[in-house]
Specification:
Radius of gyration: 25 Å
Structural class: alpha/beta
Number of helices: 12
Strand content: 15-25%
Shape: elongated
Mean pLDDT: 93
CATH topology of the largest domain: TIM Barrel
Number of strands: 21
Helix content: 25-40%
Number of domains: 2
Low-confidence stretches: none
CATH architecture of the largest domain: Alpha-Beta Barrel
Largest sheet: 9 strands, parallel
CATH class of the largest domain: Alpha Beta
């Protein structure tokens, strides 16, 4: 058999559904956050959940090039992925991992959150046995009531670990429950509790290290919360964490979700489309199929609710979204005033095999946002971004 060499197919060629990630948008968003918080506060870019669906490794590289000093992940596996990709920046695991992971933490130079004595001692013993000192960040619970040492116990907790030569307190942090809502009172309560814990720690003669509390919403809205470092997650990706931040600074969405039409055909009056026949043809329409479905993060809950864009025009998605594909309706009637796509002009170019379809992003003067889809599902833009990261391959630009 003759060997043949060929150029590997790009994601859009292998499968007509993919994600485009704009690196420059991420850089711009981080620069915008830098202007917001000032020059003296460090930035930790959160790249957990595979960079909120944007690709953790690539986002990490972009974030570091844009001036982020630290990276944040949710678990040990996410940290290992970055280390094995050659990322050398400080990596902080934002929750306490299981004690069984301590050898991996030391081997890969990962800095965990600590909130239980059992885990802290296991980490310290493993570090001492390896002849190293293990840094950690103390997680203080100021009202989230999810993880952390209670704010009133933070000083005593640290004093109970101070004897251990294998441990080094590198930072102290908390997390806000309502920074992205109109409830500023609860944020102020949490801040006061955190500041009280810090005061106690210092009074007892201990250095809390790098102090951080603010997520994207708090960093934008509450100057008092910025301390030594802020943790920028969703804002880095161009998504606003709250309606309250929209008017405060501009952000550029970094993700576009795209597909191409794989089939278009007329469906007679009264014929159903897709599972359950939740849509039946009104006649005078063609049904276009695109190869993206709930297996890719396009939730079934969006069935018959969302639109897609083709060459600056909007089309109604119809029928139940299936695992691997979904459909949308294209009118073929001469008089389009009576059909759903009434806003289209009769002179528009027809949808055809191979037409590019925008599920998330801009096409012409129209745009579909993750916020819009999230509202239709009753969820948040974070959720939508992570969902699209499941199976779709990414193409990076800029």
């Amino acid at each position: 058999m003759n060997e043949q060499t060929s150029t590997p197919l790009t994601p859009p060629e292998r499968r007509w559904a993919w994600i485009e990630i704009d690196r420059e948008a991420i850089r711009t968003n981080l620069k915008t956050m830098r202007k917001c918080i000032g020059p003296d506060t460090a930035i930790l870019t959160v790249v957990k959940a595979d960079g909120y669906g944007h690709g953790a490794v690539e986002v990490a590289r972009v974030a570091l090039s844009a001036g982020s000093k630290y990276l944040g992940v949710a678990n040990v596996s996410e940290g290992i992925e970055l280390r094995e990709a050659g990322i050398e920046a400080p990596l902080i695991i934002l929750s306490e991992p299981p004690a069984s992971s301590v050898q991996a933490l030391i081997h890969y130079d990962l800095v965990p959150a600590v909130c239980t004595t059992e885990f802290a001692l296991a980490l310290g013993e493993a570090a001492s046995a390896a002849g190293v000192i293990a840094p950690y960040h103390l997680k203080v619970d100021t009202g989230m009531n999810r993880l952390g040492v209670h704010y009133s116990d933070a000083g005593d907790f640290l004093r109970s670990l101070s004897f251990h030569e294998g441990l080094e307190l590198q930072g102290t942090f908390t997390h806000f429950a309502t920074a992205d809502t109109a409830d500023s009172f609860s944020v102020q309560v949490q801040l006061e509790r955190f500041e009280r814990a810090l005061e106690t720690i210092r009074y007892m003669g201990m250095d809390p290290g790098t102090v951080h509390a603010a997520n994207s919403a708090a960093a934008i809205r509450y100057k008092r919360s910025r301390f030594d470092m802020v943790r920028i997650g969703v804002a880095a990706y161009g998504l606003h964490p709250s309606p309250a931040t929209r008017e405060l600074l501009p952000l550029q969405p970094a993700m576009r979700v795209l597909a191409r039409v794989t089939l278009i055909k007329p469906v007679p009056l009264g014929e159903g489309v897709s599972y359950g026949y939740t849509y039946r043809s009104p006649g005078g329409v063609e049904i276009a199929t695109i190869p993206i479905g709930y297996g890719d993060g396009l939730s079934r809950m969006l069935s018959n609710k969302m639109n897609v864009l083709v060459e600056g025009h909007s089309y109604q998605q119809v029928g139940t979204i299936s695992m691997d594909m979904c459909m949308f309706e294209v009118s073929t009637r001469p008089d389009i005033s009576s059909v759903r796509n009434a806003q289209l002009s009769a002179e528009r170019r027809p949808v055809e095999y191979g037409s590019e379809v925008v599920i998330v992003g801009r096409s012409g003067n129209l745009e579909i946002t993750l916020d819009e889809l999230a509202a239709q599902m009753g969820t948040i833009n974070y959720d939508m971004a992570c969902m699209f990261g499941r199976r779709l391959e990414r193409v990076y630009c800029n």
